[in-house]
Amino acid sequence: MDFINLPDKYVGYAAFLRDVAATVVYMVRQDADDPEFISQRRAFAIFGRRNVERWRKNGLVECFRRPGKVEFRTADLRLLQRCSHHDKEKSAK
């Protein structure tokens, strides 16, 4: 059996693939009901105003201006949320 050498342990390749697949399925299910675009107000409520403004300022997310409102692509915000969460976990260790 093949193993993957992680910094803190060895993991069997099959177990690693099962864990990755389970995580992907969970994320897909979690995002299934998301609309393609959400308003700026909703983005602030879900992801935090500071986060959305920081991502926008750093050019990580694009806003779309519609007559009378500003919208964001939900999938872009979800990706940034997950990446930011992962970065926080890494820095905490």
H-E string? EEHEHHEEH
Classify the secondary structure makeup into a structural class. Answer: alpha+beta
Radius of gyration: 17 Å
Number of strands: 5
Taken as a percent bin, the fraction of beta residues is 15-25%
- What characterizes the major β-sheet? 3 strands, antiparallel
Major sheet strand order: 3-5-4
Average pLDDT works out at 86
Q: What sort of overall outline do the alpha carbons produce when their principal axes are compared? A: elongated
| Number of domain units | 2
Helix content: 55-70%
Which parts are unreliable, with pLDDT below 50 for 5 consecutive residues or more?
88-93
- Total helices: the number is 4
| Distance separating the two termini | 30 Å
Task: Show the helix and strand layout.
Elements: E1 3-5, E2 10-12, H1 13-31, E3 37-39, H2 40-47, H3 49-57, E4 63-66, E5 69-73, H4 74-92
Antiparallel strand pairs: 1-2, 3-5, 4-5
Helix pairs in contact: 2-3
